[in-house]
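Ticket #345: bound-state structure for adenosine-2'-5'-diphosphate.
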Amino acid sequence: NSYCVAILGATGAVGRELLELLESRNFPVSELKLLASERSAGQKLTFKGEDLLVEPVSDRAFENVDIVLASAGGSTSKTWAPIATEKGAIVIDNSSAFRMKEEVPLVVPEVNPQAAANHKGIIANPNCTTILMAVAVWPLHQIKPIKRIVAATYQSASGAGAKAMAEVQAQARAILEGKQPTAEVFPYPLAFNLFPHNSPLNDWGYCEEEMKMVNETRKIFGDQQIRITATCVRVPVLRAHSEAINLEFESPFTPDEAREILSKSPGIKLMEDWQKNYFPMPFDATGIDEVLVGRIRQDISHACGLELWLCGDQIRKGAALNAVQIAELLVEKSLLKPIPSLVNG
Ligand code: A2P
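RESOLUTION: The complex was predicted; output attached.
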């Protein structure tokens, strides 16, 4: 079997990676539709050596589509996902629009693939920092329950899209030329700088990105008891996010035990050279599929605490790869079924 696939947001940073992954992973595509805004009409992108025209998204564009991979922002998804599902497509949505809806599975294939089976037409791809943390921490949680997670993130520009990446590069050039950097996508210059994540703040002083890590992790793990707090920071890195994670378990977990478990877990690569003080860096994680984990050590302030450090490609496992893996899961488990509510209607 092969499938008619549409990429909504095909011209964006994640959209282009989706295109590359569908090709390199040999996803069974019978037809590929590249959808974006009116601004991109007429642009061409290459898939399997063929130039494909980008179309402005419209109702008609979803006809006969089996799978929509959406990465064009929350409001675009809110508008088009219901139209696509009505036409019988399954939408794998990268935005935050549907993630916390009860009827929408929130899936990291290494963690909760079974959740995908309950979809009603939309499956949500979690937030990028959340995916990376979930992949690294879930195997440990399976062995000994985690009571509390304290995370600090070092997030690359790619989380804010292709324009944000270009903006940081332009700012770096401006600064090196002795000019004043300007900022449009981000609120402040990011090159040679950093700032707490610029998503909206709630009454407790947490930003949306931090609350995504809290709420989405609980949903993915199916564990509302796990306590999570995070500080999310944007750093002048292009593609890969890094995270410092402190875990508190019910009982002690030695670094060697953790290493042993993580070395056998899917989607993870251990990268530790204690002699050389070499641990995962964004450069190492860029362009690769695995979440790189290292610097696993006992928390000297808590008998049941463990510290770890991770890096992961935000555009790949943090977004496009996870979405393609969900699509692969749907194919493998024959979950591309007609939407139950539409069968009789
Ligand atoms: P376009 O390039 O035509 O603006 P990124 O996350 O890298 O900024 O990419 C966002 C993606 O979402 C782009 O492909 C962009 O298309 C697309 N997009 C943004 N707004 C809309 C919209 N209103 N309708 C369709 N696609 C949109």
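RESOLUTION NOTES: The radius of gyration is 20 Å.
TICKET STATUS: resolved
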